[in-house]
Design goal:
The protein is α/β, with parallel strands linked by helices. The protein has five helices and five strands; from the N terminus they run E-H-H-E-H-E-H-E-E-H. Strand 3, helix 4 (80-88) and strand 4 form a beta-alpha-beta unit. The longest helix has 16 residues, at 127-142.
Length: 143
């Protein structure tokens, strides 16, 4: 199975920002460990601080991957365009968040993406990505 992880704005500075929410590990180190742990899955990842780049990644992934793990970060709560991109593709998307968005500011409680996602995983730290991937593998086994 080929899965693309798409990370949105400010996730390129994980390990440096708001450690109380996001921890101390940077994403590249975590991704290397994840690839080692899930050797049977072909994992790729992209990160962008630009809404348009995220939309392009979603659209292109629909022809090259079986599934997407999407952490749109702050765009989750503001981007109808990213939600429309998720709605428009035929491969499943799981929305993930490192922090528990429901334990944070009220504006973070609304996701424009969630109605079009296969599911949402929030609040398990970087483990949220692994949980999303494992759920795709379980879904694939049951199909």
């Amino acid at each position: 199975m080929k899965i693309l992880i798409i990370n949105g704005p400010n996730l390129n500075i994980l390990g440096k920002r708001e450690k109380e929410y996001y921890g101390t590990e940077n994403f590249n180190d975590y991704f290397t460990r994840l690839q080692f742990k899930l050797k049977d899955v072909e994992l790729s990842h992209v990160q962008s601080n630009s809404e348009g780049d995220i939309i392009t990644s979603i659209q292109e992934a629909s022809t090259n991957f079986h599934a997407i793990v999407l952490n749109a970060a702050g765009y989750t709560h503001t981007s109808i365009a990213i939600a429309d991109a998720v709605k428009a593709i035929s491969i499943p998307v799981i929305e993930v968040h490192i922090s528990n968005v429901y334990a944070r500011e009220e504006f973070r409680h609304k996701s424009y993406i969630a109605p079009y996602a296969k599911g949402v995983i929030t609040g398990f730290g970087l483990k949220s990505y692994e949980l999303a991937i494992l759920s795709f593998l379980e879904l694939d086994k049951n199909d």
